């Protein structure tokens, strides 16, 4: 078993990674929470695949186990779903001593984490991520939240899990599309922090060494969030490709998924900074090739002005200036500040 420890300012917790871990997770849950009652939150695709395995292990350890299933998909990541979960917890008399478990992808983790942060002003929660994106990214770091009709992740809290349990075997049932989507984030880690990971992905098939790949990505994420839990500085580097990626996601009305938009965003920004002489020439081609190898289409299918306009309104940009995360060469990052009005020009 691989183990990493996150030392964030607000909490310290372990990430365990092992094939087959799901069926043995009760032991680790028992060791990390005081709860007697557990509520497993899962979605309508994941629950039929994995809920029984998790539940039966927990019952053997003497827990009282409840579950709540919501309809799979980003459309469920809202306050209506959160409210239904609060009601399910109240109906079953969950108290502050009890615990919720997220069994699913990033949508499930974000909703469950937000419920945990707010129900009775905070109860314990555990992440059991089942998509590649959630295993390498969203289950670690404590960003929780939901969308409103005005935009994505507009309501949320920083709230860390008690433990993150990763079973790479759960990826066997994940669609090719969502595997590729998660690879968008994996490639991002290579771009921002590890030439070695980037080359490994080039020379090998990530799927065949997925446990190792997840570990390398999480080491990077762990180091970043341990130093900067609340995104005061360093954590920004995790947003490489995201400013433009989010704009593309919005323009597609979320018909394109997060990781594939990040891939497009990484290509767009490095093309621009390569032209400005900030990024080593040839870098963009390298990123395109690697994305294509993992079935990520990097064509920019929207008008550049529309993408730039949408990026100007990004909630992460402060005032007149935009913090662009740039890779001067694969494995390194810097923050390049530009006036928001210059964005369309540098992309063009
Ligand atoms: N909190 C963070 O730091 C953070 C970071 C990145 C992304 N996110 C959020 O994560 C969400 C995207 O996460 P996602 O891509 O995991 O989406 P998701 O949770 O919707 O999962 C994608 C699809 O795969 C299905 N699925 C999940 N696991 C499966 C499995 N093992 N086998 C078969 N099907 C499975 C789901 O039902 C869903 O249909 C977005 O809402 C995004 O905002 C959060
Ligand atoms: Zn992302």
Strand content: 15-25%
Residue-averaged pLDDT:
95
Largest sheet, described in full?
Answer: 7 strands, mixed
Instruction: Calculate Rg over CA atoms.
Output: 20 Å
Q: Tell me which ligands are bound.
A: nicotinamide-adenine-dinucleotide, zinc ion
Q: CATH first level of the largest domain: which class?
A: Alpha Beta
- The multimeric state of the shown protein is single chain
Q: Which term fits the overall shape?
A: globular
Give the helices and strands as they follow along the chain. EEHEHEHEHEHEEEHHHHHHHEEH
Number of structurally distinct domains:
2
Protein topology:
Layout lengths: L1 E6 L4 E6 L7 H8 L4 E7 L3 H14 L3 E7 L8 H13 L7 E6 L1 H13 L5 E6 L2 H7 L4 E6 L2 E8 L4 E4 L9 H18 L1 H9 L6 H18 L14 H10 L6 H18 L7 H11 L10 H9 L8 E6 L7 E6 L3 H5 L1
Parallel strand pairs: 2-9, 3-4, 3-5, 5-6, 6-9
Antiparallel strand pairs: 1-2, 7-8, 10-11
Helix pairs in contact: 1-2, 3-4, 5-6, 5-8, 6-7, 6-8, 6-10, 9-10, 9-12, 10-11
